[in-house]
Amino acid sequence: MRDWKKLAVLAAVFLAVYFLPLGNPEVRRALIEAFRLLQWYALHHTLACVVPAMFIAGAISTFLSHGSVMRYLGPKASRPMAYGVASVAGVVLAVCSCSVLPMFAGIYTVGAGLGPASAFLYSGPAINVMAVFLSARVLGLDLGVARAVGAILFAVLIGLAMAAVFRRSETKRSEAAARMPAPEPSPRPLWKTVLFFLAMILFLVFSDWYNTGDVTITMDDGTRLRANVRYATRGALDVQTYGPDGHLGSEVRRLDRDEVASVEPEPGVVETIHRHKWYLAGVMGLAVLVMVWRWFSKEEMRQWMHATWDFTLLIVPLLFVGVFVTGLVGGLIPEKAVAGLVGGNSLASNLTASFVGMIWYFATLTEIPIVEMLTRLGMGRGPALALLLAGPALSLPSILVVYKVIGFRKTLVFCLLAVVMSTLVGWVFGMLVA
Question: Which of the 8 DSSP states describes residue 42?
């Protein structure tokens, strides 16, 4: 079966390359945009987000006992405890959908129930305190509050629905786990394990610290622009400039690095922490190294590195493929075309916004200027909320990884739940604020 899957992938790649219309200027432009998005992802998210998350996932599968995970997140765990712990993750982590994937894979592999694991998968990128506050400030208090309430409820409801739909398979999974021999007790007291994971999580939080992207750009000719940086690659900056009214413009402008004299981030607490994030992350990294040196054996280290490498081979290739395809699709379908499909507050426009949010990749906080631009192009308030609820928690790269971890049927149901719930909530919200 595995060989047939590999053959199908090879055949698909061959056919895509064989029939690719490189003579079409739109296709060539879309390919360049795909590589630009991939470079942006490699520059700003791979080392800062994905790599630390891989080490955390490896540590979860190596150092967390199966019994502990089953007690708090297993299928038979107390529901308030399991879903409370899973839903709080977003407040603590504040990372994008791709960064939470290795940790989701780690807790699910160790024995977490599908319901709590699904709640964690949604809550990790969706329940972001800074994103909620910025949504309220930039997009309006009504959207900010609706996003906060919707994200918290969605995490719990999606988890409960996943557990109910796949109750039989989860029961078999927990029974199989119960037949496994009891794991050996941890050689360390609980407080050492908690402190170790806390330092690793804080390293991830600081290394992946969000950046509002608001900057003042000085051009070579002396012109100064107040803008929000959408994507930054080695050769160019994609920005949305602020108008005299203080709102972002509806156009994305590409500035060559050669014509930019300086880029000065706008001051603020968030930006100050972002400017010093590698010092803060370095302190946490040093603490992790000291703990590993003092508390862990060489055999445990070997197992940890082996588990981390396994997760890397499983997840990273799919993330890169997903980001590339997202950039390709985004290059072929401009944002103005998307805005034309999500005007008003029909079920169709809300469904379109939810579906676009499901496949679009949003790094932390980038969804806010994108939604603001789309609303200025005619996007309705309901579809804006639908995109904000479905977008940060899902993306094409994350869907590919989730499929690899839990299979096609469970991934399909998870995506359908997120899209349908986002559509309905956006539709109702649009009617209420009309």
Answer: I
Give the residue, 180 or 403, on which the prediction is more confident: 403
CATH of domain 214-265: 2.30.30.100
**How much is the mean pLDDT over the chain?**
82
Res. 195 pLDDT band, cuts 50 70 90: very high
C-alpha span between 362 and 385 (Å, rounded): 15
C-alpha pair distances (Å), 214 with each of 263, 270, 365: 10, 11, 11
Amino acid letter, 129: V
CATH 2.30.30.100 in the chain, residue ranges: 214-265
49, 98 Cβ separation under 8 angstroms: yes
Strand order in the sheet with 260-265: 253-256, 236-241, 224-232, 214-219, 260-265
Q: What is the pLDDT of residues 376-396, one digit of tens each?
A: 777 888 888 888 888 777 888
CA distance 117 to 101: 11
Burial class (CB in 10 A: 0-12, 13-18, 19+), 250: middle
Rounded CA-CA distance 240/47 in Å is 26
Query: Cα(316)–Cα(136) distance, rounded to whole angstroms?
Result: 34
